[in-house]
């Protein structure tokens, strides 16, 4: 049995960044860049009008002759002389001979002529070439996570593809004779299966998906075969069957498939029976079957590991600090993970903490961590916590 910190360290040692792959920019949401990107062109790529108005050569004249029009997407050069102007629209290319755009509100139109009502400073309302980014500048660093704004930004350079770190191919095995799917009345002795859908959705919240999901009974041969098939994936998650009961066959199935154990059991409450191992390039987490225990392990160990697979960043729980409204006694000499509500830095522990109950998980916004070396935290004491269930 290992400590929480040792478990995180061991996982960190064995999680490697996945290979990079080129994908279409439009499908890159949520991926992590595998290389630096430098601007292939300047933005804007030409002098651009920032307003609807009139482009001209700045001077002392107040009266100009209109000689043409420039709208967005046009490319027409005008050899403007001192008393000439062109009608121009936002985003259009400013003629080389013009150095100022006067907004249309400050112009009086008389046929083919305009009169300037208010003269701006030279170079007003013109976005210079490269104002946002100059060609050759670093525009995106390796390791950056791609969001919607990022995609739009890169599209502005005409990029169609990006090199990203692959996302893991994930297989999930859910074990248990007592589990029943939704849609029918519950059979005697059965419970509705929740771990599969919970794991799928916590992964989805973090930008990942399951490619293989199988439900297997508590039968040694069936579990062994399911593990064999799942080892074709980058990450294997197993729900249930990892404790020491007569019908817990997962550990035996892992051993028969020669998956190398890195640790088994963590000195924590809840969720002591968690197993982590590796075979070739496949990582395996065997998680407790109790729903709250499973979800806690997903948050503390699995999600950080998956993030490292795509980002290369070391596992970190990123604890925040709050003030305890209540008292915590640690009688077990184990690290505790307690569900709580945090508001304005004040943390209150919820009553229902049983490993089989998801009700507190559904109601909480905080997972409090109490190290195994702490025996008590008094009212008003400082606690460390991980924010959860927050938008």
Tell me what you see in this structure.
- This protein has four domains: 4-18 and 167-311, MoaB/Mog-like domain (Molybdenum Cofactor Biosythetic Enzyme, Chain A, 3-Layer(aba) Sandwich), CATH 3.40.980.10; 25-40 and 139-165, no CATH class; 48-127, Molybdopterin biosynthesis moeA protein, domain 3; 320-387, Beta-clip (Beta Barrel).
- The protein has helices at residues 4-14, 148-155, 195-205, 220-230, 250-256, 291-311, 359-363; strands at 20-24, 32-33, 37-38, 48-49, 53-56, 63-70, 84-88, 100-103, 107-110, 113-116, 126-127, 138-140, 161-165, 170-175, 179-180, 191-192, 210-216, 235-239, 260-264, 268-269, 275-279, 282-287, 320-324, 328-329, 335-343, 346-349, 366-370, 376-377, 382-387.
- Strand 25 (335-343) and strand 26 (346-349) form a beta hairpin.
- The mean pLDDT is 95.
- The strands form eight sheets. A six-stranded mixed sheet has the order 8-5-7-6-10-9, with no helix packed on it. Strands 17-14-18-22-21-19 form a six-stranded mixed sheet, with helices on both faces.
- Helix 3 (195-205) runs parallel beside helix 6 (291-311).
- The longest helix is centred in the C-terminal third of the chain and has 21 residues, at 291-311.
- The two termini are 35 Å apart.
- The chain is α+β, with helices and mostly antiparallel strands and 391 residues long.
- It has seven helices and 29 strands.
- The protein is 19% helix and 31% strand.
